[in-house]
Amino acid sequence: MRWVERLFKTWLTILLCREQMSEESKDYKQKDWQRHYDENDLGWDLGQVAPPFIRLWDDGKLPLGKMLIPGCGRGHEVQFFSKNSFVVTAVDYSEGAVTYLKNALNEKNLEGRVLHQDFFSLDNSHNAFYDLVIEQTFFCAISPRQRQDYVQNVSRVLKPGGMLVGLFYHTDKEGGPPYNTTREDIEKHFSGHFKILKLEKEAHSVEQRKNREWLAILKKLDN
Ligand SMILES: C[S@@+](CC[C@H](N)C(=O)[O-])C[C@H]1O[C@@H](n2cnc3c(N)ncnc32)[C@H](O)[C@@H]1O
Fold first, then answer.
1. Are 164 and 154 in contact (CB under 8 A)?
2. Are 44 and 137 in contact, with CB atoms under 8 Å apart?
3. Which residues, in sequence order, are bridge partners of residue 201?
4. Which of 122, 127, 160, 188 is buried deepest, with most CB atoms within 10 A?
5. Which numbered atom of ligand 1 lies nearest the CA of 140?
């Protein structure tokens, strides 16, 4: 009987691995994102800073200091916050994004560190380094299977008591990217590592994202 059990377990493992591999093969890879830049197909790019961030800044809700912006794309937020005295580090693994952003910062005489690398492989020099992480259409760009990894990495790079301030995209659609984010997704993934200070539908989104963005203000827990 033992060998039947073993055979069944092996078969099940192979089946699960194949399923996972086929799911992974559907994920967007670096080359897929780069193709968007090559073809100037940047449907997500607002061409401006997302208005809710300007509002939060105007209202003094964002602590000045070191800021990280993962999956920064062309980096409208990077430029805005750099202009407003934050010490900004931006990360994106698409060359099209970092080249555009570096040129834009140069032309406007703005400071900012732009890293051309995978957000999930930031080295230990980033640990507890940032006061604030800004999330803008990056959480919805990664595979939902990477969400817990995202939370752990954001928590790792924040100082104790550091904040994650983000706009999370509630597409209400299957598949992606962009992958749907519900209130429950945010609560489920973040509550072990962050205190949720605010989580509500954002009222000042750009027209095409009206009623489709969660504004989340999260504070890193000391654990
Ligand atoms: C939907 S775009 C959003 C860009 C920007 N945040 C915006 O709102 O305009 C997602 C970006 O994340 C980048 N990206 C995706 N996965 C990444 C990863 N693992 N590490 C770094 N960048 C990544 C892509 O290259 C792309 O520029």
1. yes
2. yes
3. 214
4. 122
5. 1
Q: Whose CA is nearest to atom 19 of ligand 1?
A: 118
Distance 80 CA to ligand 1 centre (A): 18
Q: What is the pTM of this model?
A: 0.92
Which protein residues are within 6 Å of ligand 1, measured from CB? 33, 44-45, 71-74, 91-94, 97, 118-120, 136-138, 141-142
Ramachandran bin of 35, using left for φ above 0, alpha for ψ from -120 to 50, beta for the remaining angles: alpha
pLDDT at 20: 55
Classify 48-220 by CATH class: alpha beta
Q: What is the pLDDT of residue 27?
A: 87
Q: What's the distance, CA 201 to chain centroid? A: 18
Compute, in angstroms, the gap from residue 130 CA to the centroid of ligand 1: 19
Pairing of strands 194-201, 113-116: unpaired
Domain boundaries, the chain: 48-220
Residue with CA nearest ligand 1 atom 5: 73
* Pairing relationship of beta strands 113-116 and 158-169 according to DSSP bridges: unpaired
pLDDT over 90 (residue 23): no
